[in-house]
Write a structure and sequence with these properties.
The complex is a heterodimer. Helix content of chain A is 51%, strand content 10%. By secondary structure, chain A is mostly helical. The two termini of chain A are 30 Å apart. Chain A has a 3-stranded antiparallel beta sheet with strand order 2-4-3. By secondary structure, chain B is mainly alpha-helical. In chain B, the strands form 5 sheets. Chain B has a two-stranded antiparallel ribbon with strand order 1-2. Chain B has a two-stranded parallel sheet with strand order 3-6. Chain B is globular and about 75 Å long. Chain B has a domain of 155 residues. Chain B has 10 helices and 10 strands. Helices cover 61% and strands 9% of the residues of chain B. Classes of the chains: A mainly alpha, B mainly alpha. Chains A and B meet through strand 1, strand 2 and helix 2 of A and strand 3 and helix 4 of B. Strand 1 of chain A pairs antiparallel with strand 3 of chain B.
Chain lengths: 134, 350
């Protein structure tokens, strides 16, 4: 898996790490059971403080996507094959999605364009292509 | 002219060639220690400074060789030092010129700068070529066995470096300590390199990691063979010390393994660096402009980077992150033995 971050970008680095790993899980690049580098190793590879990596991993752990064991290290514990998420999670996610979609609408992007973007993104994730988003 | 003198002569132009080539075999996006965004790869200042460096470095090599021929091989090591210092000066000069144009024209203004990590480097770590350590270990074991067998038959005084020293385990087995030091420290550092950050190109991280793995393997093997060559030279000098053989041209025989090992190592290094330099920089993303952490384009100081060893900015090699306290411990560890020996020598007056 390739982890590309912008150290001087506007998004906090831990958030970028979390986002890239979520994307890798969605594309199937990091399926359930695949290992991630130890926090110190990833910190060295990205040239950043190890607490930053820890923070990113911790977000993923709280979301149930990552299991961090003392021996096995960080292992992906959930992906598209693990079944649907709980209702609590979906409500939280819908709130965030609303903000994202509101941004596009506020900027004047037509509704059809917004839907097209959503469809393209979801179509790019292999295991969700069985359900027709249209 | 003995072969030792000949090697003294040959080493100066050899160094000249290496110093001439090495700063030039580098990634297009790293010129004289300056990070260059893909959009500026054809900037005139880069071509001009490369050409100027070639000229200056070639003149230095010719002058150094001429000096050795004129003064004799006694001046060989001074020539080599001056040669290295002058080349560093040329490197620094080119670095400053490019840096000046870069900041004046704002090469990185508005560019998205990224850092990339490939997690497979950690999840599928590169295997250390442990088998290539066998020659070095075999030479050390041979030296130890011969030393133990020979020690009871040694005369009361040994001829060491043109002087007579009283025979003791310290004077007789110094060479073995040297072998263990070189092989041990060298292998330890190489193991650290295997755990360090690889040098990835943001434009094509997967291909650059594959290239890095191949190059690292080749350089590691060449280095382990170089250790075996150094150990062999120390074995040959120990054999002479223990009066196993007397040869008129003995010194030449002594330095021959090291010289061959060095040539092979430099050749591997340049080949590895050339491969990396030849990789495409197909400009889809821009590496982070990290020049502020590279003093003079050569010395890395970054307190926020947890890395101890990082890949150097030219050729194919590694350097320490002086902003990391562990790096200072590492330097102290490597220097502890030679410095300790000098102190003991000065203190005891032997």
């Amino acid at each position: 898996m390739l982890l590309s971050i912008e150290p001087d970008g506007p998004v906090p680095i831990y958030q970028q790490i979390r986002d890239r790993i979520v994307e890798a899980i969605a594309t199937g690049e990091a399926p359930v059971g695949s290992g991630l580098p130890a926090t110190r190793q990833l910190a060295v590879d990205l040239g950043i403080n190890f607490h930053t990596v820890n923070k990113g991993y911790d977000l993923l752990r709280q979301e149930g996507l990552l299991r961090i064991g003392r021996k096995a290290g960080a292992v992906v514990s959930r992906d598209a094959t693990s079944g649907p998420p709980g209702p609590d999670w979906e409500a939280g996610w819908a709130t965030r999605l609303r903000t994202m979609l509101a941004e596009a609408t506020a900027q004047g992007l037509p509704a059809a364009e917004i839907i097209r973007h959503c469809r393209d993104v979801v179509a790019g994730f292999p295991s969700t292509s069985d359900g027709d988003p249209s | 002219m003995t072969a030792a003198v000949l090697i003294g002569y040959v080493m100066v132009p050899l160094f000249g060639v290496v110093l001439w080539i090495v700063p030039l075999v580098t990634r297009p996006t790293l010129q004289f220690g300056v990070r260059v965004p893909p959009a500026y790869l054809t900037a005139p200042v880069l071509r001009r400074e490369r050409r100027n460096f070639q000229w200056r470095s070639a003149i230095i090599a010719i002058c150094a060789t001429a000096a050795v021929i004129a003064v004799g091989s006694r001046a060989a090591w001074i020539s080599r030092l001056v040669e290295i210092a002058a080349n560093l000066g040329c490197f620094w000069w080119a670095h400053q010129r490019i840096e000046k144009v870069k900041s004046a024209e704002g090469w990185f203004a508005g560019q998205r700068q990224t850092v990339v990590a490939d997690t497979s480097w950690r999840t599928e770590p590169q295997r250390f070529p442990i088998g290539w350590l066998v020659p070095a270990v075999a030479v050390i074991v041979t030296t130890v066995i011969i030393g133990i067998l020979r020690y009871p038959h040694l005369p009361p005084y040994l001829a060491s470096g043109g002087r007579q020293v009283a025979t003791s385990p310290v004077t007789a087995f110094a060479g073995i300590a040297g072998q263990i030091y070189v092989t041990g420290i060298g292998t330890g550092l190489l193991l650290l390199v295997y755990r360090s950050r690889p040098d990835l190109d943001t434009a094509d991280p997967a291909a650059s990691l594959r290239g890095y793995r191949t190059a690292l393997g080749a350089v590691a093997r060449a280095l382990l063979i170089l250790f075996a060559c150094i150990d062999l030279t120390l074995l040959l000098s120990a054999l002479r010390l223990w009066e196993v053989y007397h040869l008129p041209g003995g010194t030449a025989l002594l330095v021959l393994p090291v010289a061959l090992g060095l040539v092979a190592f430099f050749a591997t290094l340049v080949r590895a660096a050339r491969k990396r330099a030849g990789a495409t920089d197909a400009a889809s993303a821009t590496d982070r402009d990290d020049d502020r952490f590279w003093k003079g384009g050569l010395v890395y100081v970054n307190r926020d980077d947890p890395a101890v060893l990082v890949t150097a900015r030219f050729a194919f090699g590694w350097t320490v992150n002086l902003g990391n306290p562990t790096a200072w411990l590492l330097i102290a560890g490597v220097l502890a033995v030679p410095v300790g020996l000098v102190i003991i020598k000065l203190a005891t007056g032997t």
